[in-house]
Specification:
Low-confidence stretches: 163-173
Helix content: 10-25%
CATH architecture of the largest domain: Sandwich
Mean pLDDT: 83
Largest sheet: 9 strands, antiparallel
Oligomer: single chain
Structural class: mainly beta
Distance between the termini: 49 Å
CATH topology of the largest domain: Jelly Rolls
Number of helices: 1
Length: about 170
């Protein structure tokens, strides 16, 4: 069965389910959190959810990258080595995988979150290398002057060369 080409939800009015914060993470108050997962990517590495929380302060561990967009209310977030930042409706933030943040919710906050699972290095290293190689090739194309191809024939086989760089794309060379 194929999946539809897109998913859509009203994030403001989506009904949420209880999602308690771990008691050992709570610093102050009695925050009550709820959430609802509403979509995920075809490869299963990325999901979309809505989360809300009442007043309180707590630490939060991000096991994967999470991009948040505040829908309603506000939250003051801080992290190791980062100055506190107040996020309000319309604000977005990225919380990197493997980090802790402190969240202080003065009254209430509702966020839309895009969560991406971290992939193992055996998968990400080749992808990163390929992207870097692509960027290097693109920079070389921008920097090197365009050259007119030169043509030659060797044993009846056409050779295509570019200046002193030698033959490229040649059969039988």
């Amino acid at each position: 069965m194929s999946r539809p080409p897109f998913s859509a939800e009203s994030l403001t009015y989506l009904d949420l389910d209880p999602a308690p914060i771990r008691p050992e993470w709570i610093i102050g108050g009695q925050p009550v959190a709820r959430c609802r997962h509403w979509s995920d990517s075809s490869d299963g590495t990325t999901s979309a959810m809505v989360w809300d929380c009442t007043a309180g302060s707590f630490r939060w561990y991000f096991g994967g990258d999470e991009i948040v967009h505040i829908i309603e209310g506000e939250v003051i977030v801080s992290g190791d080595g980062a100055a506190p930042r107040t996020l309000r409706p319309g604000d977005a933030a990225l919380f990197r995988a493997g980090t802790w943040s402190t969240w202080h919710v003065p009254h209430y906050v509702r966020k839309h979150a895009i969560c991406r699972d971290s992939l193992p290095a055996v998968v990400t290293l080749p992808l990163r290398a390929a992207r870097k190689a692509g960027r290097i090739v693109e920079r070389l194309r921008q920097v090197l002057p365009a050259r007119t191809p030169t043509y030659a024939v060797r044993a009846g086989v056409p050779l295509v060369g570019i200046g002193l760089l030698g033959a490229i794309g040649v059969l039988g060379f």
